Amino acid sequence: MIVDYSTNSRKIYKYSNIVPPMKDIRSKLIELFKQGYCTPQIARLAKKIKSPSTTLHYNIKQLEKEGKIKTYKAVFDYKKIGEGHCTYVSINLSQEDYGDPEKVGRELAKDSRVESVDICTGGYELVVKLRTKDIDEYYETIKDWVKKYKFTKTISVTSLKQLKTEFVELE
Predict the structure, then answer these.
(1) 93: which DSSP letter?
(2) Could you read off the pLDDT of 64-85 as tens digits, one per residue?
(3) DSSP letter string over 108-167?
(4) Which helix (H) or strand (E) element contains residue 85?
(5) Residue 132 in contact with residue 115, Cβ under 8 Å?
(6) Do 101 and 119 meet the contact criterion of CB atoms below 8 Å apart?
(7) How far apart are CA 97 and CA 95, in angstroms?
(8) What's the CATH architecture for 81-168?
(9) Nearest residue to 42 (alpha-carbon basis) of 63, 65, 60, 66
C-alpha cells in the first residue's frame, strides 16, 4: 500500500484504496425526480424494441417537440422515502372560489406533498392526491387547507396499497 501524505486528500484516498465518503444528496434527488428531472434510458429502450439508439433518440425528441411527452418521472416506493400515507381528497370549494377552481387547484399543486390535482364534475370540484408521512401530517395539512381556502366540505379516501401507478405495475 502506497500512501501519499500530501495535502491533496484525493491522492491519499487513491493510493490507499480507501473509498472517500460521498455526500448524501438522496433527498435532493428525490425532490428533483418528483419534479420531472428524469431522462429515458435510451440503451434499455433500444434493446427492448430492437431499434438503434439514434432512432429512439430522434423519435423521443419528436414526441417531446409535439408536446406528447411533457416530462419524465421516477416511480417511488413512497414508504421508503417517508411519504407512505396516500389520501385522495375530494373538495367542495367555497362560494367565492367555486367559479375559478383552477386558481385553488394551482395553489394546492405548489405543495410538494401534492402528487396530483384534478378539476372534476359531480359532487366535488377538486380531487387531490396527497402524500404525507403519516396520518398526523395528513390531519394537520387538511386542517390548514380548510382554514386557508375555506373549503365547504372534504371527503378523504386513504389508499391501503397501490398496485399500479403511472402505468407501471407495482409488486
Answers:
(1) P
(2) 999 999 888 888 999 999 999 9
(3) HHTSTTEEEEEE--SS-SEEEEEEESSHHHHHHHHHHHHHHH--SEEEEEEES---EETT
(4) strand 85-92
(5) no
(6) yes
(7) 6
(8) 2-Layer Sandwich (3.30)
(9) 60
